[in-house]
Design a protein that fits this description.
Strand order of the largest sheet: 3-4-5-7-6
Structural class: alpha/beta
CATH superfamily of the largest domain: Vaccinia Virus protein VP39
Number of domains: 2
Protein name: DUF3052 domain-containing protein
Distance between the termini: 47 Å
CATH class of the largest domain: Alpha Beta
CATH architecture of the largest domain: 3-Layer(aba) Sandwich
Number of strands: 7
Radius of gyration: 18 Å
Order of helices and strands: HHEEHHEHEHEHEE
Helix content: 25-40%
Largest sheet: 5 strands, mixed
Shape: globular
Pfam families: DUF3052 (PF11253)
Number of helices: 7
Organism: Corynebacterium haemomassiliense
Length: about 220
């Protein structure tokens, strides 16, 4: 298992992982090694090192050895997994967003996971709309924590910005995470029903729990 969590380890390992992505995935064919991508790599390695693999990286069991060769590949010994299929770059595909989609972000605060927002922007090829936008949206990313207000009211308000076939991805602090403001699943289900939505999917995104809500009358 990975046991080193020093800055030196993550600096070296992140560089290796970025090189792997740059030669193995279509969205990094250009060799992009920007600070944002390096941050993704660091977050990936931190979560694996700290054992947070049940939700974010389900196919990775462990790393016993991390090494590299001149052709920029990663050797994973003592475990198994497909990094390109389980890394943070799959956030967008799990959320169901695609190029050209219009996505609005509401309720963002400093505790929100910017990797999720940035992955969506990369996928759609545009910036997320802010809370003041009035353009019909394919997806609305709603960050909500216990204590933010009334979830039913927020869902009703947010729903006005949905276009035909649109959906809300409700992000709440996940159970067991270090974040405060966890919203019980029963409250999410009840609030969604009262607001006229049904929950069609649930997924874990790092420390956040995602609930996909679609209008009931669709």
């Amino acid at each position: 298992m990975l046991v080193s969590t020093s800055d030196a380890f993550f600096t070296r390992a992140s560089s290796i992982l970025v090189s792997f992505w740059a030669t193995s995935t279509s969205w990094l064919q250009s060799g992009n090694t920007s600070p944002r991508i390096r941050a993704y790599a660091r977050a990936f390695l931190q979560r694996v090192a700290f054992g947070e693999t049940n939700h974010e990286f389900p196919s990775i069991l462990c790393f016993s050895t991390l090494s590299y060769r001149p052709n920029h590949t990663i050797l994973i010994l003592g475990g198994h997994g497909d990094l390109s299929a389980t890394g943070v770059d799959t956030y967008a595909s799990r959320l169901g967003v695609k190029p050209g989609d219009v996505v609005q972000e509401i309720g963002w605060d400093e505790d929100a996971d910017s990797a999720i927002s940035e992955a969506i922007e990369d996928a759609i090829g545009a910036e997320l709309l802010d809370e003041d936008a009035d353009e019909p949206c394919d997806t609305i990313l709603l960050w909500f924590r216990d204590g933010d207000g009334d979830l039913v009211d927020d869902l009703v308000d947010v729903s006005r910005g949905l276009g035909p076939g649109g959906r809300i991805w409700l992000m709440t602090p996940g159970a067991g995470s270090a974040s405060t403001g966890v919203v019980p699943p029963s409250e999410i289900a009840e609030s969604a029903q009262l607001a006229g939505f049904i929950q069609t999917k649930a997924d874990r995104f790092g420390a956040w729990q995602g609930s996909c809500l679609t209008p009931r009358n669709r």
